[in-house]
Amino acid sequence: MNRRDFVAGGCAACGALLAPAIARAQDWSAPARFTRPDLTTDEGGLWSIMDREERQLRRSPFAVRDPQLHAYVQDIACRLAGDHCPDVRVHIVRTPIFNANMAPNGMMQIWTGLLLRMENEAQLAAVIGHEIGHYVERHTLERLRDVKARVAFAQFLGAFGLIGAVAQIGVLASAMAYGRDQERAADRIGLALMRKAGYDTAEVPRMWGNLIAETNARPGGDPYNPLFATHPAPAERQEALAQMAAGQPGGSTHEEAWRDRIKPHLREWLLDEIRRGQHEEGIALMSRMIERLPKSADYVYARAEIYRLRAKDGDLDAALADYEAAARIGGEPPETHRGLGLVHRTRKQAPEAKASFQRYLELAPNAPDGAMIKSYLEET
């Protein structure tokens, strides 16, 4: 049965099956705050290990040290966590992959690749609420106990301590793979927490639809992130979340506040995404954001860079069109003109290349690649 048949012919059954889930989400109440376990117990030992990893994370060069951004995201987590707020500690980690996780001691990691893909605050609340769901249901503790019982624990901790090293992500993903029932429970709790905090739960299936589209854009549809590697099938999950969200519409997205808060980091995160080298995913992401924010030159520039670096047939034409579009929008990154110059240089269009390189150096006189660009100018 294809997707259209499923939606057209199976929705009545879906609704009947999901009704109990919706009711459970509405009736769910958080457990009392957890007390710190005795160090002599296995749980106390796991908390101690996670405490040590958290200390290392605080010193990591990948930790994003922006007090305002941190306070903003921590506040979202607190509003969702309710009475558990004092125990939840958010750490933002510079890694260009969509992922978040939470340890049983209350340490939560949110990676910048996830933040880059959020369209508003409500979508971020969906992810944080989901992770809090795992935490309050003690799924993370169960998972760590299982991992510790296997030889993979040392490897898992190695990956945990090397956050930012993309090569380790597969290890982390397999170690933190929850069961389907656990994921569905965390989804229900996350929606309940979002609704209670006043967020629009319709953003949850919308976010998953965005991720599905991005993943499908990659040749072979290979799910190269821990979230897709460990959760139920994304399409199935999106359908279930849409059904649950439709049961209680309303709420806010806080998109403008979200855009303002991430603006200081946007170019850095876009550069990380460009450097990640997953061109098809990157083009899908940028195209989605350009459609949503057509007046933002940053996303248009980023897509141009990805086209130029991919360099398939027609990509230089597409890159040139995007660079020029970013310049017309205004407020473009200076590197827009470097990109234009590189395309013109490749095509041996010396006057156009010279003008573009000169504009780049005017806008970025201290550019780290200034010497190289000057050498290109000497060629013309």
Please give the structural blueprint.
Blueprint (H helix, E strand, L loop, with lengths): L2 H25 L14 H18 L7 H15 L7 E5 L6 E3 L4 E5 H6 L3 H16 L2 H10 L3 H10 L7 H7 L4 H17 L6 H15 L8 H5 L3 H13 L8 H8 L3 H11 L2 H14 L4 H14 L4 H15 L5 H12 L3 H14 L6 H10 L1
Parallel strand pairs: 1-3
Antiparallel strand pairs: 2-3
Helix pairs in contact: 1-9, 3-5, 5-9, 5-10, 7-8, 9-12, 10-12, 10-15, 14-16, 15-16, 16-17, 16-18, 17-18, 18-19, 19-20
Please characterize this protein's 3D structure.
The chain is mostly helical and 380 residues long. The chain has helices at residues 3-27, 42-59, 67-81, 112-117, 121-136, 139-148, 152-161, 169-175, 180-196, 203-217, 226-230, 234-246, 255-262, 266-276, 279-292, 297-310, 315-329, 335-346, 350-363, 370-379; strands spanning 89-93, 100-102, 107-111. A three-stranded mixed β-sheet has the order 1-3-2, with helices on both faces. The longest helix is centred in the N-terminal third of the chain and has 25 residues, at 3-27. The relative contact order is 0.09. The model is unreliable at 1-17 (pLDDT under 50).
Q: Kindly state the percentage of residues in helix.
A: 55-70%
> In DSSP terms, counting alpha (H) and pi (I) runs of 4 or more, how many helices?
20
Backbone structural class: mainly alpha
Low-confidence stretches: 1-17
- Beta-sheet strand percentage? under 5%
Computed Rg: 23 Å
Shape estimate? elongated
List how many beta strands DSSP finds: 3
Going across the biggest sheet, name each strand in turn: 1-3-2
Largest sheet descriptor: 3 strands, mixed
Our measurement of the CA-to-CA distance between the termini, rounded to an integer number of angstroms, reads 60 Å
Mean pLDDT score, rounded? Answer: 86
Order of helices and strands: HHHEEEHHHHHHHHHHHHHHHHH
